[in-house]
Automatic annotation (TrEMBL):
Organism: Methanobacterium alkalithermotolerans
Statement: the UniProt record of this protein carries the keyword Ion transport: no
Membrane topology recorded in Swiss-Prot or TrEMBL: Multi-pass membrane protein
Domain of life per record: Archaea
Pfam families to which the protein is assigned, alphabetical: NADHdh
Keyword terms of this UniProt record: Membrane, Transmembrane, Transmembrane helix
Protein name (Swiss-Prot/TrEMBL): NADH-quinone oxidoreductase subunit H
An example Gene Ontology CC term for this record: plasma membrane
UniProt key word Cytoplasm: no
Segments crossing the lipid bilayer: 6-27, 73-93, 99-122, 164-189, 201-221, 253-272, 278-300, 312-331
Main localization category: membrane
Lineage: Archaea, Methanobacteriati, Methanobacteriota, Methanomada group, Methanobacteria
Subcellular location: Membrane
InterPro entries assigned: ComplexI_Subunit1, NADH_UbQ_OxRdtase_su1/FPO
Amino acid sequence: MEASTIIYSTAAVIGTIIVAFIISIWLPGIERKFVQARIQQRIGPPISSPGIMAPLKFFFKETINPNSPLPRLYNALPLVGIIIVLFIFLFLIPEMYFLSALTSIIAIVGLLKIEEVIYVFMGSFSRSIMSLSMPFPDVIKGAAHPNIKKSFLEDLSSLRAFRLIAFGSFPLYIALFVPVAMAGSIFLGDIVAYQQLNGPVLFSLAGILGAIVYFIGYMILLNEYPFAILKTKADVIEGPYMEYAAKYRSYTYLTRGFLMFTLGALFSVLFLGIPPNILSWGILVNILVALLFPILSAFMSAFSPIFTFKQFYPVAAGVSLLGVLAILATFV
């Protein structure tokens, strides 16, 4: 490979990542300021508050040692999360398609699964002050209960995260295989090439159904209402994030914004055939999709009930069946 080609590819990759990150830190503010606040008829926070000012504020706060059996690993999990999302986005850039297996749907699914498993570990490794102040069963003298395991609020978060992985993520992963079925390949480069020759997957019956399923899966993966089973009032709305503080909480904010952009870029690759590349006009489409998804998600969240598990399971199952129907429609 010539030196000029290497420089060109490196500049494209680095530039695309920088642009994506800059856009991603504004997405939470756009969602809350221009959609959620307007629907609720209030002013809302400054657009820079959720994605920029909040991470900066927490990043400079004093770091504390969490109440955890593995405090270093517990604090490292948000950083691992943002690195995983970065790798997912990296493999969407066409200059990285030479990596073959890493730029396939199988690799993308595997990385997304790791991102989901992190929430299970967060809940499992946290032992918050709130839980320890009211242990169950009571540990005062004369109140010991033999052979009863002490429970923590974060254990509930870990259990909900596991249920989310076991059931809730099916719609998104099934939707990923609609373009695979149409292109006849699991590799992103082949899926993009197929759409450049035959038009976007989105402009077909299977593509429309797959896009609907993908969007529902997008909301579930981001824990947006009505699918926000990962966070409940039982653990102060924070779920596995409850005990994170200082810079580690900052990482959770940055990860969420970057995941929003990455999922939008993934949709652009699979259903429009337009991969993210700062040196191409297609990056504008990626940005537009990344902006459109949070807006649509906020509208749906505002006018939807909050699902319980009894409601969540059949909805997730129904949307998954719609995804299977979309895959079958590719063979018609």
